C-alpha cells in the first residue's frame, strides 16, 4: 500500500512539474509596459503629465510593495509562535498599515501637483481593472 502511494505521489509530482514547466515565463518588461499603457489610457494621461507622474507613481508603488511584503511576512510560521510574539506581530502589522496610509497620503499630495483629483481617484479602480484584465487574458489563453 505504501509503495502504491509513493508511486502515485511521484507520478503526480512528475505530471505537475511537466504542466508547470510548459507555462511560459512572465516577461516583466512586457508586463510593465502593458501596465503603463493601460493606466495611461484609462486615466487619460497627457505626455507632459506622464513624464512627471510615472517617477512619483513608481516610487509609491515600490514603497507600497515593500510594506505589503513586510505585512505578508508577519503571517508566516504562525504555528510556531507564542502569545507574546503574536501580540508583537499584531502591533507591527498595525504600524505597517499606518505606514501604508502615510505613503498613500504622500503619494496623493505629490500626484495632485501633476494629476487632477478625478485622475487620482480613478487610479484605484484602474489598478484593480488591470489585474482583472490580466487574469481574464490568462484564462482565455489556457482554453
TrEMBL record:
Span of the signal peptide: 1-21
Keyword list, A-Z: Signal
Name recorded for this polypeptide: LTXXQ motif family protein
